[in-house]
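quick one, two chains, predict together pls
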Amino acid sequence: MNAQACFHCGEPNPASAPILARVQGRQHAVCCPGCKAAAEWIETLGLGDYYRLRSEPAQRNEAVADYSAWDRPALGRLHVRTSSADRAEVIVLVDGLRCSACAWLIERAMRGIEGVHDVGVNALARRVSLAFDPGRIKLSALLAALARLGYLPHPLTAEMIDSQRQRESRAALKRLVVAGLGTMQAMMMAVALYAGVFDGIDPSVREFFRWIGFLVATPVVLYSAQPFFRGALREWRVRRLSMDTPVALAIALIYLASMLNVFVGGHEVYFDSVSMFVLFLLLGRHLAMRARHRAGDVVDALSRMQPVLAERRDTAGYTTIAVHELEPGDIVRVGSGTAIPADGELLGPACRVDESLLSGESTPIARASGQALIAGSLVIDGPIELVVRRIGADSVLAGIVRLVTRAASERPKLACLADARAARFVVRVLVATVVTALAWAWFDPSRALPAALAVLVVSCPCAFALAVPSALTRAVAVLAQRGVLVVDADALEALARADRFIFDKTGTLTEPSFDRETITLIRGSLDEALGIAAALEQSNTHPLGLALRRVAASAPMKCAEALRHVAGAGVEGRIDGIQYRLGRDGFALSLTPAAARIHATIDALVLADETGEIAHFPISEQLRPGAATLIRTLAGAGIECEILSGDSAGRVARIAGLLAIGESIAAATPADKLARLSLLRAQGHVIAMVGDGINDAPVLAAADVAIAIGDGSAMAHAASGMLLSTSRLESLLEARHVAGEMLVRLRQNLNWALAYNLSAVPLAALGFVPPWLAAIGMSASSIVVILNSLRIGRRSGSSPNASNAPITLTKAGAREATA
Amino acid sequence: MNIILLLIPISLILLGIGIWAFFWAVNHAQFDDLDTPSLTPLSEESIAEHDTDES
């Protein structure tokens, strides 16, 4: 670590009067009093080794903010979960948690604080969970301690601590394990009883086994099978017949009949059948749930957009209060760069806001006095004042969160179709059961119950229930292994059916890059120019911004403020008091008189300040590896491809020529793109749109299946149904292949379930199938379905598989890309 | 044969203990994240060493 950089945070030290911090017996220069305090506090805690262990410099320690507002009881109720009088828990999202040494430091430092019971740090999720004694330490003191260490804390609401998802998956896991263990025990007892039937058994031992069977099956039925009973109750209330009704009915009937037989010493007990039945059904549900949960922390991400504190105007000035204490009609002040706490109307002069969460467009929107502002959007030039109109659950943001939650918990369309089919089937089964029971009651009353049970069990909609989720889940899992994340299961079906692929150009088919050698420098040093450019692009997710940051990775990092993105033009910001612009030359040079222009380049980003140009960054564009393969294979499968790009006609035409894409539309605005999509859809095409998840979000949402290429943050955009997390474009081919295979397997599953039921039900009704055989038949039919689904994604040599063809073609694609 | 009258209840009690332990583990977040903990020993080697040094 050099003397110029701060010992704590690594930022440059001020030239005048160095501030010194004493750590492990040596004086180290630091950049500010905040860092001095942080470093010395870490030292007094005996944690000086942090500086030896860490792999990243710490976050610069700004003056510690006031966290006392967090002690308001209204906020505490929302964020702190109190488990007992002396134990409360809070989960804090921290900024600046960069490496595992940070996790170690936080854990050690927080554990040393009086009143803290337990500290858990998850470096990956950047979350710190704190268990503390609210009587001995206040939440604000904990937050301030984190801030003193240099990590800015953002407490998460208690809702997120034990979120719906977590509770659901925990409960499901418990139910599954109880059902599994219960089934094993019940089967053991059943095997002993069956052996007894053939080889003879002491009646008292038989009685004992029956009671044990009853004992182990009871938790399975009363605990594990609860979801089915609840579901049946719900279905009954809304008068809609679905899967759960016959399932619950079968479970209850078998269990009650067996229980009766145990008590009165009747003939048969079916505890093994009922347990196995519950286990298999739960297994299917569990698989479906896991697929659903993989959709990601969308709601988490959205909820974080809404601030928790607001500054309300009172008679005596402004007080900081919790957002949910706001009432409609309150007047709230919002600072520049912070999020609006509640929906309302602007008071005072016009301002600009960033409503990217609603529109996906990060271009700031001007709002005049009296116009509506939406909670969660960012104020670009503040401070402003607004009158609160709608709060909490009524706000637009809450509506979006609800929508996304529903989308995440909604059953895929395919599954709904299967459900509808199963519902009709269920009605017939119930009718068949009743008819069987009545008919046998007429001929031979003693066989009425076993035959009716056999019909109910053998015809169990198990195979139907598993047919769709097992195929969907397997396809989703296979794709996840190959770097394709399926956010919306409906997207798989649409992908298999898609007959037209539309591609965005930059970042999708091509990869922009900058070359240090070709950068034209007008003044200053190369590293400085790159540092400024990277700082301006620091929050930009456009492929050009990413490419620029990559080439500037070795340049000294600067910090830009007042960043403003202008869609289609560039970005401007202030670094060390100087206003810079970076972007298309017309935009960048508008800061300066036209005479100062030296170079005229078209395909370049221009960096300029008030006095004129600083550097030109020529953009070179390569085809992404695999792009040629992708297009050729799709064309080979008879699928039309086209490019829909906002870029200039010349460059789009060049790429279209390289890839042999017939149709291309250049210089398209988002509105043009939407119009094109709706035109194609009106013509009856099923459209797959492939693009950059963030910048193309509105267009992606309009396609039948949206495939985003990007990183994890793009997941937050519900617009994309699928996400290619790897940079390999070929994975799209594999996804298409797997999706097609899934549809085939799914149809096979449904047909098998139908064929099995049609053949088994009559036999059972005629009394040829004892309930234990019915249970085995049911299990076997489900296993066939599951095994068939597991065949998805297995690479066979004979079929024209996506994995074989592209490899040879990739080389050709790479050659073309370099040509 | 009468030994099973003792052994089976014992096995059921052990099963109950097993289920109780499993519930405890689930409730204490042991099954919430099955992917990342396997990476922690790799990424925190130096810190783990340090921990043992100190304690």
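Chain B has a mean pLDDT of 72.
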